[in-house]
Every structure is written in structure tokens, then in C-alpha cells.
Fold this protein.
Amino acid sequence: MTGGEEKGPQGPHVVVLTRAAEFHLLGRRCVGVRERSTGSWQSGHAAWGTALRGSRPLDGGELWPGALRAGAALVLGSAEAPFVSGEVLAIEHPRPDDSERALEAARQAERGEASAAPRGGRLLAFSMLAGLLPWLDPRG
């Protein structure tokens, strides 16, 4: 285990941030999708529960199997019906305490339990700030 990675049953917890959503991955599986503007978990999202395929250029070029790359699109799901995200802005490895709160909130949302977004934590603060300030992106 390195840095802020939390080793789960399927691998480290990684959060892939796009303008609209946070994709929470444990190993190669998407275990949660949270809308960045509201902090609410989207248990019905097409990416939830799907496997990581990799990344690909935003122009639709070749898939980079198993890779996570900022500036590219995240690709999840099957080859026949992939989910392709918007541009990946950042890839985070949350601290263990932030990771556990986020993963528990995702599990509650998946079970249909009323759950608030995790309180506090560096990842949530960064995610909310980045979602509120898209004009800071120099690329437009």
C-alpha cells in the first residue's frame, strides 16, 4: 500500500474525477458514482458495477487497456456496450479515512438507504470546489 491508497478486496480505492461525476473504483470495478454538483450518489448510473476497460483519447482513438489517464475519457463496461465518460480531470487516491466514508456511503446508496454524502474530508472538499469553479480550467 502506498500513499493514500486503501487496499480493498479487489484492490486500491481510486477516484476518477470528471466535470460531472466522481467514479469510485475498487481494483477494476466501479463501486460508486457520485454527482459532483450535488454530492448525491447515482446508484442507477450506467457505470455503477461495471468493470474498468481503460482510457481512450477524447477524439475516440484506440483504447488504452487497463490505463487511467487524466485528459482522456474513462471507459467502463463491456466492449459491446461501453460507458465512456467525459474528460478525466484528475485521478485521486483518497486517504484511508476518506475512502472508508465514501465507500460506505456508496454501499448505502446501492442498498437504497437514505445516505448523506460523506462529511468533511479532503476528497469531498476538492470535488465540490472543482465542480463549482469550472472557469478555472485554462482549456475553457
